[in-house]
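ZP: hey, is the iron/sulfur cluster complex queued? I don't see it on the tracker
AM: it wasn't, my bad. submitting now with these inputs:
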Amino acid sequence: MAYLPKQVETMAADSPFRFHCHPGVPCFTACCRELELALSPYDVIRLKQALGLSSHDFLERYAIIEFAKDDLYPKVYLAMVDDGRASCPFVDASGCRVYHDRPAACRTYPVGRGVSLDKHGAKKEQFIIIREEHCRGFAENQTQTVHDWQSDQQTCDYNRCNDLLLPLLHPSDHSPPRQRLSSEKATLFIDTLYNLELFQSRCSQNSTNCAASPDDEPALLRSAIDWLQQQWQTVR
Ligand code: SF4
Ligand code: SF4
Protein backbone atom coordinates (compact mmCIF):
# COMPACT_ATOMS: atom_id res chain seq x y z
CA MET A 1 0.00 0.00 0.00
CA ALA A 2 1.32 3.44 -0.97
CA TYR A 3 1.91 6.17 1.64
CA LEU A 4 -1.41 7.52 2.97
CA PRO A 5 -2.02 10.93 4.59
CA LYS A 6 -2.68 10.74 8.33
CA GLN A 7 -6.42 11.26 8.03
CA VAL A 8 -6.73 8.27 5.65
CA GLU A 9 -6.85 4.69 6.91
CA THR A 10 -7.29 1.40 5.06
CA MET A 11 -10.34 -0.60 6.02
CA ALA A 12 -11.62 -4.13 5.44
CA ALA A 13 -15.21 -4.72 4.34
CA ASP A 14 -16.07 -5.92 7.84
CA SER A 15 -14.21 -3.10 9.66
CA PRO A 16 -16.52 -1.11 11.94
CA PHE A 17 -16.42 2.69 12.09
CA ARG A 18 -18.34 5.31 14.01
CA PHE A 19 -20.09 7.83 11.79
CA HIS A 20 -23.51 9.31 11.16
CA CYS A 21 -24.44 12.19 8.85
CA HIS A 22 -27.86 13.77 9.32
CA PRO A 23 -29.46 17.25 9.24
CA GLY A 24 -28.72 17.74 12.96
CA VAL A 25 -24.90 17.74 12.66
CA PRO A 26 -23.34 21.23 13.04
CA CYS A 27 -21.45 20.83 9.76
CA PHE A 28 -24.53 19.86 7.74
CA THR A 29 -23.82 20.45 3.98
CA ALA A 30 -20.36 21.90 4.74
CA CYS A 31 -18.86 19.14 2.63
CA CYS A 32 -20.97 20.08 -0.41
CA ARG A 33 -18.66 23.00 -1.21
CA GLU A 34 -15.18 23.49 -2.68
CA LEU A 35 -15.24 20.03 -4.14
CA GLU A 36 -13.42 18.36 -6.99
CA LEU A 37 -16.25 15.95 -7.67
CA ALA A 38 -15.44 13.67 -10.60
CA LEU A 39 -18.52 12.09 -12.18
CA SER A 40 -18.64 8.61 -13.66
CA PRO A 41 -20.87 7.86 -16.68
CA TYR A 42 -23.38 6.23 -14.33
CA ASP A 43 -23.39 9.30 -12.06
CA VAL A 44 -24.35 11.35 -15.12
CA ILE A 45 -27.11 8.91 -16.09
CA ARG A 46 -28.66 9.18 -12.63
CA LEU A 47 -28.34 12.96 -12.35
CA LYS A 48 -29.61 13.80 -15.81
CA GLN A 49 -32.58 11.47 -15.36
CA ALA A 50 -33.37 13.05 -11.99
CA LEU A 51 -33.22 16.51 -13.56
CA GLY A 52 -35.13 15.55 -16.72
CA LEU A 53 -32.24 16.61 -18.96
CA SER A 54 -30.50 15.08 -21.95
CA SER A 55 -26.86 14.12 -21.48
CA HIS A 56 -25.85 17.02 -23.71
CA ASP A 57 -27.82 19.55 -21.67
CA PHE A 58 -26.58 18.13 -18.37
CA LEU A 59 -22.95 18.38 -19.51
CA GLU A 60 -23.53 21.92 -20.79
CA ARG A 61 -25.13 23.15 -17.58
CA TYR A 62 -23.46 21.21 -14.81
CA ALA A 63 -20.14 19.75 -15.94
CA ILE A 64 -16.57 20.70 -16.66
CA ILE A 65 -14.60 18.34 -18.88
CA GLU A 66 -10.84 18.37 -18.27
CA PHE A 67 -7.99 16.42 -19.79
CA ALA A 68 -5.03 17.32 -17.55
CA LYS A 69 -1.63 16.76 -19.05
CA ASP A 70 -0.72 14.15 -16.44
CA ASP A 71 -3.97 12.19 -16.85
CA LEU A 72 -4.41 9.21 -19.12
CA TYR A 73 -8.02 10.01 -20.00
CA PRO A 74 -10.36 13.01 -19.71
CA LYS A 75 -12.47 13.54 -16.57
CA VAL A 76 -15.89 15.05 -16.06
CA TYR A 77 -16.31 17.19 -12.94
CA LEU A 78 -19.45 18.64 -11.43
CA ALA A 79 -19.20 22.41 -11.93
CA MET A 80 -19.44 24.29 -8.64
CA VAL A 81 -21.46 27.51 -8.41
CA ASP A 82 -19.70 30.89 -8.30
CA ASP A 83 -21.34 32.01 -5.03
CA GLY A 84 -18.19 32.83 -3.09
CA ARG A 85 -18.30 29.41 -1.44
CA ALA A 86 -17.93 27.23 -4.55
CA SER A 87 -21.13 25.39 -3.63
CA CYS A 88 -22.43 22.31 -5.36
CA PRO A 89 -25.28 23.34 -7.69
CA PHE A 90 -27.58 20.89 -5.90
CA VAL A 91 -27.11 21.94 -2.28
CA ASP A 92 -29.63 24.08 -0.45
CA ALA A 93 -30.48 24.77 3.18
CA SER A 94 -32.43 21.53 3.50
CA GLY A 95 -29.64 19.38 2.05
CA CYS A 96 -29.12 17.72 -1.31
CA ARG A 97 -31.75 18.40 -3.97
CA VAL A 98 -30.78 15.24 -5.87
CA TYR A 99 -30.29 13.05 -2.81
CA HIS A 100 -31.90 9.94 -4.32
CA ASP A 101 -29.58 10.23 -7.34
CA ARG A 102 -26.49 11.80 -5.80
CA PRO A 103 -23.11 10.71 -7.18
CA ALA A 104 -21.32 7.68 -5.81
CA ALA A 105 -18.64 9.81 -4.12
CA CYS A 106 -21.33 11.63 -2.11
CA ARG A 107 -22.98 8.35 -1.14
CA THR A 108 -19.92 6.56 0.12
CA TYR A 109 -18.18 9.44 1.92
CA PRO A 110 -16.28 9.04 4.28
CA VAL A 111 -15.49 5.64 2.78
CA GLY A 112 -13.62 5.31 -0.49
CA ARG A 113 -13.60 2.18 -2.65
CA GLY A 114 -10.86 1.22 -5.10
CA VAL A 115 -11.04 -1.73 -7.48
CA SER A 116 -8.47 -3.39 -9.69
CA LEU A 117 -8.29 -6.53 -11.81
CA ASP A 118 -5.86 -9.35 -11.10
CA LYS A 119 -4.16 -11.30 -13.87
CA HIS A 120 -7.20 -13.60 -14.14
CA GLY A 121 -9.55 -10.63 -14.57
CA ALA A 122 -11.00 -11.04 -11.05
CA LYS A 123 -11.88 -7.87 -9.15
CA LYS A 124 -9.96 -6.88 -6.02
CA GLU A 125 -11.71 -4.36 -3.78
CA GLN A 126 -9.94 -2.08 -1.32
CA PHE A 127 -11.46 0.43 1.07
CA ILE A 128 -10.22 3.51 2.87
CA ILE A 129 -11.83 5.88 5.35
CA ILE A 130 -11.09 9.62 5.29
CA ARG A 131 -11.39 11.39 8.65
CA GLU A 132 -11.49 15.07 7.72
CA GLU A 133 -11.33 17.50 10.62
CA HIS A 134 -14.34 19.55 9.58
CA CYS A 135 -16.59 16.48 9.46
CA ARG A 136 -18.46 16.09 12.75
CA GLY A 137 -20.16 12.87 11.71
CA PHE A 138 -17.40 10.89 13.44
CA ALA A 139 -18.55 12.20 16.84
CA GLU A 140 -22.07 10.82 16.33
CA ASN A 141 -23.19 7.70 18.10
CA GLN A 142 -23.69 5.24 15.25
CA THR A 143 -21.39 2.40 14.28
CA GLN A 144 -21.49 0.27 11.14
CA THR A 145 -19.18 -1.83 9.04
CA VAL A 146 -17.89 -0.69 5.65
CA HIS A 147 -20.02 -3.37 4.03
CA ASP A 148 -23.16 -2.23 5.83
CA TRP A 149 -22.40 1.38 4.92
CA GLN A 150 -22.13 0.53 1.22
CA SER A 151 -25.42 -1.29 1.40
CA ASP A 152 -27.14 1.46 3.38
CA GLN A 153 -26.00 4.06 0.85
CA GLN A 154 -27.27 1.89 -2.06
CA THR A 155 -24.00 1.87 -3.95
CA CYS A 156 -24.62 -1.48 -5.64
CA ASP A 157 -25.84 -0.14 -9.03
CA TYR A 158 -23.10 2.50 -8.99
CA ASN A 159 -20.36 -0.01 -8.26
CA ARG A 160 -21.64 -2.45 -10.86
CA CYS A 161 -21.74 0.18 -13.63
CA ASN A 162 -18.47 1.82 -12.62
CA ASP A 163 -16.70 -1.54 -12.53
CA LEU A 164 -17.65 -2.13 -16.19
CA LEU A 165 -15.09 0.58 -17.00
CA LEU A 166 -12.21 -1.28 -15.38
CA PRO A 167 -10.91 -3.04 -18.51
CA LEU A 168 -10.88 0.35 -20.28
CA LEU A 169 -9.36 2.48 -17.55
CA HIS A 170 -7.24 0.27 -15.34
CA PRO A 171 -4.92 -2.41 -16.59
CA SER A 172 -4.66 -5.56 -14.52
CA ASP A 173 -1.63 -5.93 -12.27
CA HIS A 174 0.12 -7.83 -15.08
CA SER A 175 -0.85 -5.71 -18.09
CA PRO A 176 1.41 -3.11 -19.63
CA PRO A 177 0.57 0.39 -18.34
CA ARG A 178 -2.03 2.37 -20.27
CA GLN A 179 -0.90 5.33 -22.32
CA ARG A 180 -2.46 8.79 -22.41
CA LEU A 181 -5.33 8.88 -24.90
CA SER A 182 -4.85 10.74 -28.13
CA SER A 183 -7.16 13.74 -28.51
CA GLU A 184 -9.27 11.76 -30.98
CA LYS A 185 -9.70 8.88 -28.54
CA ALA A 186 -10.38 11.30 -25.70
CA THR A 187 -13.24 12.92 -27.67
CA LEU A 188 -14.64 9.50 -28.49
CA PHE A 189 -14.38 8.54 -24.80
CA ILE A 190 -16.53 11.48 -23.66
CA ASP A 191 -18.99 11.33 -26.56
CA THR A 192 -19.55 7.60 -26.13
CA LEU A 193 -19.66 7.13 -22.36
CA TYR A 194 -21.09 10.45 -21.20
CA ASN A 195 -23.57 11.13 -24.00
CA LEU A 196 -25.57 7.96 -24.52
CA GLU A 197 -28.12 9.68 -26.78
CA LEU A 198 -25.26 10.62 -29.13
CA PHE A 199 -23.87 7.09 -28.93
CA GLN A 200 -27.25 5.66 -29.80
CA SER A 201 -27.84 8.04 -32.66
CA ARG A 202 -24.42 7.17 -34.12
CA CYS A 203 -25.30 3.47 -33.81
CA SER A 204 -28.53 4.08 -35.73
CA GLN A 205 -26.78 6.11 -38.44
CA ASN A 206 -24.14 3.41 -38.90
CA SER A 207 -26.65 0.54 -38.59
CA THR A 208 -24.65 -0.75 -35.63
CA ASN A 209 -26.64 -2.97 -33.32
CA CYS A 210 -26.07 -1.53 -29.86
CA ALA A 211 -28.17 -4.32 -28.28
CA ALA A 212 -29.87 -2.16 -25.68
CA SER A 213 -33.17 -0.35 -25.39
CA PRO A 214 -32.90 3.46 -25.23
CA ASP A 215 -34.96 3.25 -22.03
CA ASP A 216 -32.40 1.05 -20.32
CA GLU A 217 -29.46 3.42 -20.02
CA PRO A 218 -27.27 1.19 -17.80
CA ALA A 219 -27.56 -1.50 -20.52
CA LEU A 220 -26.83 1.16 -23.14
CA LEU A 221 -23.74 2.13 -21.16
CA ARG A 222 -22.57 -1.48 -21.21
CA SER A 223 -22.97 -1.51 -25.02
CA ALA A 224 -21.14 1.81 -25.27
CA ILE A 225 -18.19 0.45 -23.26
CA ASP A 226 -17.99 -2.68 -25.45
CA TRP A 227 -18.19 -0.56 -28.59
CA LEU A 228 -15.51 1.83 -27.34
CA GLN A 229 -13.15 -1.03 -26.58
CA GLN A 230 -13.53 -2.25 -30.15
CA GLN A 231 -13.01 1.25 -31.56
CA TRP A 232 -9.84 1.78 -29.55
CA GLN A 233 -8.29 -1.12 -31.42
CA THR A 234 -8.58 0.89 -34.65
CA VAL A 235 -8.47 4.60 -33.67
CA ARG A 236 -5.10 6.18 -32.89
S1 SF4 B 1 -19.10 17.20 6.88
FE1 SF4 B 1 -19.52 15.05 7.44
S2 SF4 B 1 -21.16 15.08 8.96
FE2 SF4 B 1 -21.02 17.14 8.04
S3 SF4 B 1 -22.57 17.06 6.44
FE3 SF4 B 1 -20.67 16.45 5.48
S4 SF4 B 1 -20.55 14.22 5.66
FE4 SF4 B 1 -22.16 14.95 7.02
S1 SF4 C 1 -24.68 16.16 -5.11
FE1 SF4 C 1 -25.75 16.44 -3.18
S2 SF4 C 1 -24.51 15.35 -1.67
FE2 SF4 C 1 -23.24 15.64 -3.49
S3 SF4 C 1 -22.09 17.51 -3.14
FE3 SF4 C 1 -23.97 18.08 -4.24
S4 SF4 C 1 -25.47 18.59 -2.68
FE4 SF4 C 1 -23.81 17.50 -1.66
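AM: back. DSSP finds nine helices and ten strands in the chain.
ZP: great, adding it to the tracker
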